[in-house]
Amino acid sequence: MSCPPDSPAAVSAIGAGQVDTSCPPDSPAASTLAAKGRTVLVTGAARRLGRSMALALAAAGWQVAVHYRSSAQEATETVAECEGLSGASASFRADFQDEAAVRALVPRVVRHFGRLDALVNSASVFEHDSAASFGFAALEKHLRSNTGAPVLLAQALHQHILARAAADEQAQGVVVNLLDQKLWNTNPDFISYTLSKAALEAAGNMLALALAPRVRVVGVAPGLTLTSALLSAQKFAQLHRLSPLGRSSTPDDVAAAVLFALENRSITGTTLLVDGGQHLMRFERDFSMM
Ligand SMILES: NC(=O)c1ccc[n+]([C@@H]2O[C@H](COP(=O)([O-])OP(=O)(O)OC[C@H]3O[C@@H](n4cnc5c(N)ncnc54)[C@H](OP(=O)(O)O)[C@@H]3O)[C@@H](O)[C@H]2O)c1
Fold it and tell me: 15 C-alpha to center of ligand 1: Å?
């Protein structure tokens, strides 16, 4: 049986928040169709990697909730592009230093779209400190945004999926946490950032057990993907080649891994390293300090 992605029967059923059952559940066509009614919250999605992932997920049929903190104009542009791809998107502002704002985010998304099926934790603070300059203020700032917020959002998604499960036996959710290859290749730069991502990686394993069987939790760890204000274009190109494969990750590579993690129903409690093998090499300093 063929299952055209935009067949009226499929779309009308999906528009009502149901999953089309006329296709075999694991066929690619069914996957595309099923994504049509589903909603994903991508944090930090106004710019850079978050934006790339938002657009890739919209292109695959997901309704995208675009979270941002200060990049309001960029968030509006990302929403417009997502709407052009999947038909429904909206932006939501929240500062992840503020626990109440984090706790309110998933209910706001659910009120807007009627459902939430997936969460991509990409928003991140990345500020330099070292063993010499380390202090509680920097540690707390990184832990709030990079660890506490992703865990609270996963908790809220789980509660939402459990509530839905009362009426829908098939209700399932998935969380993708953006990590970093440097967890497998540590250097002493960005100590608070690295600690916060190491804690998120550990939290991912704990949550994979705690939120099963309704919600899966998967890590995606990019290598050097986008440049920073600390690097010239020439230096970035040179560092990007520093990997066993001769190229680190691109935004498209990372987005493809996130999409795979969202769609593959047997992956949980593990991390996909998407870095050209950079984690297998030894770097004495962070890329941005090289
Ligand atoms: N870029 C890379 O090469 C690379 C490499 C390895 C891992 N990663 C990981 O991949 C993810 C995305 O990377 P990226 O370079 O795109 O990230 P990024 O530019 O450093 O940050 C993404 C977004 O996080 C948001 N954010 C920062 N502080 C926040 C707060 N207190 N509350 C809410 N949002 C906040 C910002 O939103 P606003 O702009 O709206 O303020 C920012 O645009 C991160 O988790 C990062 O650790 C990236």
Answer: 32
Q: What is the pLDDT of residues 117-175, one digit of tens each?
A: 999 999 999 999 999 999 999 999 999 999 999 999 999 999 999 999 999 999 999 99
* Ligand 1 centroid from CA 68, angstroms: 10
CATH class of 9-289: alpha beta
Q: How far is the CA of 272 from the centre of ligand 1 (A)?
A: 18
Cα torsion 38, 44, 45, 46 to 10°: value is 140
Query: Which residue's CA lies nearest to atom 1 of ligand 1?
Result: 226
Q: Atom 28 in ligand 1: which residue has the minimum CA distance? A: 125
Per-residue pLDDT, 35: 54
Q: pTM score, two decimals?
A: 0.90
Q: How remote is the CA of residue 125 from the centroid of ligand 1, in Å?
A: 6
With 0-12 / 13-18 / 19 or more C-beta atoms within 10 angstroms meaning exposed / middle / buried, residue 269 is middle
Ligand 1 and 148: CB distance under 6 A: no
Long-range CB pairs of 12-20 (<8 Å, 24+ gap) are 17/114, 17/115, 19/170
Domain definitions of the chain by residue range: 9-289
